[in-house]
Amino acid sequence: MKMRRKSDLPVKTCPICNRPFTWRKKWERDWDNVIYCSDSCRAAGKEQKLPYR
């Protein structure tokens, strides 16, 4: 596999913090399902969706 520059990697925007985040090797198999940039944003996203809070 050829080396890629960081600027060539796919980018998404986190819906919680509105910051861009780039593809990571860790997310290679699941990139289409990655929504949040971090665990803390994921927790905040789940917290917002709870109707009884």
UniProtKB/TrEMBL annotation:
<dbReference type="Pfam" id="PF10013">
    <property type="entry name" value="DUF2256"/>
</dbReference>
<dbReference type="InterPro" id="IPR017136">
    <property type="entry name" value="UCP037205"/>
</dbReference>
<protein>
    <submittedName>
        <fullName>DUF2256 domain-containing protein</fullName>
    </submittedName>
</protein>
